[in-house]
Structures are given as structure tokens and as C-alpha cells.
Amino acid sequence: QVQLVESGGGLVQPGGSLRLSCAASGSIFVIKTMGWYRQAPGKQRELVASITSGGDSTDYADSVKGRFTISRDNAKNTVYLQMNSLKPEDTAVYYCNAVRSGYMPWGQGTQVTVSS
């Protein structure tokens, strides 16, 4: 059984940084393109960053480009999201999952709140 576990969220001031982690076990995880999604209350879930299985290619939503960096460590079955220069509009629950195909059950996500 695959389980996605997100962690690393919290309360941070505007301009601050957080590093999120997404961990799972099993070989299925490491062969997938993975992404970070976020969903704010009353808003649709959006994909903000993705990374190919080998970590050779990344993509970002325009809203986070230049501020967020996605990476992965397949040996640790973990995907990371380094978030810098955080803005209040980044406030959301952040989830990880596959991109395009191979979706897994959603984890509980990790709350990121950007506020003074």
C-alpha cells in the first residue's frame, strides 16, 4: 500500500522560507513524475511544481517560478519543495502526487500559512 506523507509546513512571515517534504515507499514512487499541488480554501487545487522521475527536468507554475524549487531524492523516496520569498497568496494546503498519470491516494497535505 502506497501512502504519501507531506510535512514541513507551518506559519511563516512574508518573505520567509519553508522546505516541504513528501515521502512514500515503494518503487512506484521513484518511476513517476511527481508534483506539488496546493489548494486554498474556496480555490481549486493547482499544480505548482513538477519533477521528472530522474530529476532531470522541472516545471513551475508562473505564480511560483523563481521562488520555489522542486527536487527529489529517489534513494530516500522523497520529493522536496523549497519555498523562498513566500507571499500571503502562497497560503494553502500543499500536497504531493504524481503528475499526468499514476495518481495515488491523496495524503493529508501540509498547511503553509504566510502571514505577519
Poorly predicted parts: none
The backbone outline, from C-alpha atoms, is globular
Radius of gyration: 13 Å
Care to count the β-strands?
10
CA-CA gap between termini? 40 Å
- Helix count equals 1
Q: Determine the strand fraction and express it as a percent band.
A: 35-45%
Helix content: under 10%
Give a short account of the largest sheet.
Answer: 6 strands, mixed
Strand order of the largest sheet: 2-10-9-4-5-6
What string gives the helices and strands in order?
EEEHEEEEEEE
Average pLDDT: 94
Supply the helix-strand structural class. Answer: mainly beta
Q: Topology of this protein?
A:
Layout: E1 5-7, E2 10-12, E3 18-23, H1 27-30, E4 34-39, E5 46-51, E6 58-60, E7 68-73, E8 78-83, E9 92-98, E10 110-114
Parallel strand pairs: 2-10
Antiparallel strand pairs: 1-3, 3-8, 4-5, 4-9, 5-6, 7-8, 9-10
Overview of this structure, please?
This protein is mainly β. It is 3% helix and 44% strand. The strands form 2 sheets. A 6-stranded mixed β-sheet has the order 2-10-9-4-5-6, with no helix packed on it. A 4-stranded antiparallel β-sheet has the order 1-3-8-7, with no helix packed on it. It is globular, with a radius of gyration of 13 Å.
